[in-house]
Amino acid sequence: MQQITISELKNFVGQEVTLYGWLYHKRSSGKIKFLVLRDGTGYVQCVYFKGNVSDEIFDIADRIGQESSIIVTGKVKQEPKAPGGYELDASDLKIIYDTHDFPITPKEHGIEFLLDNRHLWLRSKRQVAIMRVRHRVVKAIRDFFDGKGFTLMDAPILTPNAVEGTSTLFETKYFDLGSAYLTQSGQLYAEAGAMALGKVYTFGPTFRAEKSKTRRHLTEFWMVEPEVAFADLNDDMDLAEEFLEYIVQTVLKEKDEELKILERDTTKLQNVKRPFPRIHYNEAVEILKKHGVDFQWGNDFGGGDETIISEQFDRPVMVHHYPAEVKAFYMKRDPQDERFALAVDVLAPEGYGEIIGGSQREDDLDTLLKRIAEHNLPQSAFEWYLDLRRFGSVPHSGFGLGLERTVSWICGLEHLREAIPFPRLIYRNTP
């Protein structure tokens, strides 16, 4: 008797096998019991005929509860109407742990109840599909950069200073050295890596203490941040659109079943191919004004503004040359017009907002010193960062992509909280 996984059933048609897993749900039809087993790799219907199994086995099939852990033995049959296209003509059933009163039943539950039980909610078919898409997005990210000669460089999570100001930082005491902060970004460290290795990327958790309750915000999320030496803003935009196309097309190709479970309309994702439209900030402002938005030039775009802008295009749109006043201190300004930063945001369609933010970095020491002073940041905390300009400075660029926003968009989710296994929100840090 072979112990296999549900995902391997197609290789064992006509053979007797043993499966280990959990009871997803069950139903009865007279003298037949239908048990749907899940094992993390898929779902399969196990059919128990009263005349074909002992009364004891039939009784077990009748009384075990949802999410009981069980061992099922039976013959693999091809069945197009069954989940996954195969079913098990079951001959044996053993209980590992009999479960009753599992709190998440097939009925509707409120979101707070589901979040309180996130450790169990993850077992649902929808959540499993989302986690599989997330896994494939992560792999696509690594495959893309590894295949283009980038070196992964891990940035510290505890940092002595802010990347973009201290107002949205989580602060903690650090022994006798005063305060440390949970990182907002690995970018500054990635810049150091780019000066050593040419092309690098950081990929890890980041933290923002924004008191925001929108569907686009988490307090803990994952970011991938490539940084490239000798690259300008146009190079940065070229890399960003190639990267985004690769991720989306890879998921469409390899996670079709998961997207079907999520009932995702993939027609708009199929449009995510280069070239992406590129518009100046001024053009984006004109779009808003044409749609009746009372928008003041010089402001950053809010979520509603981004939605209106992105709705004008059938694929992600790249908005570049933002006013320097609303961007971070390290962004280089346009030498042709100092009002603008050499920055770009990539806005996803369907109202999912900014998923990439990037820029060409300021590579001149004196200018960077001036920017740090303008932003009222302590120069002493950035001396190591300034050394990157003192010793062999070169033009360089990079961007950051938010993993959860990307997963949320690809999966068609209403809120980022489903795009990460255990979401951290302004009023939630459990389970």
TrEMBL record:
Signal peptide coordinates: none
EC numbers: 6.1.1.22
GO cellular component, one term: cytoplasm
Gene Ontology MF, one: ATP binding
InterPro entries: Aa-tRNA-synt_II, aa-tRNA-synth_II, aa-tRNA-synth_II/BPL/LPL, Asn-tRNA-ligase, Asp/Asn-tRNA-synth_IIb, NA-bd_OB-fold, NA-bd_OB_tRNA
SUPFAM superfamilies from the UniProt entry: Class II aaRS and biotin synthetases, Nucleic acid-binding proteins
Top EC group: ligase
CDD domains: AsnRS_cyto_like_N, AsxRS_core
Compartments where found: Cytoplasm
An annotated GO BP: asparaginyl-tRNA aminoacylation
Pfam families documented for this protein: tRNA-synt_2, tRNA_anti-codon
Catalytic activity: tRNA(Asn) + L-asparagine + ATP = L-asparaginyl-tRNA(Asn) + AMP + diphosphate + H(+)
Keywords: Aminoacyl-tRNA synthetase, ATP-binding, Cytoplasm, Ligase, Nucleotide-binding, Protein biosynthesis
Classification via Gene3D superfamilies: Bira Bifunctional Protein, Domain 2, Nucleic acid-binding proteins
Domain Aminoacyl-transfer RNA synthetases class-II family profile: 131-421
UniProt cross-references to HAMAP family, sorted A to Z: Asn_tRNA_synth
PANTHER family on file: ASPARAGINE--TRNA LIGASE, MITOCHONDRIAL-RELATED, ASPARTYL/LYSYL-TRNA SYNTHETASE
Protein name as annotated: Asparagine--tRNA ligase
Organism: Ignavibacterium album (strain DSM 19864 / JCM 16511 / NBRC 101810 / Mat9-16)
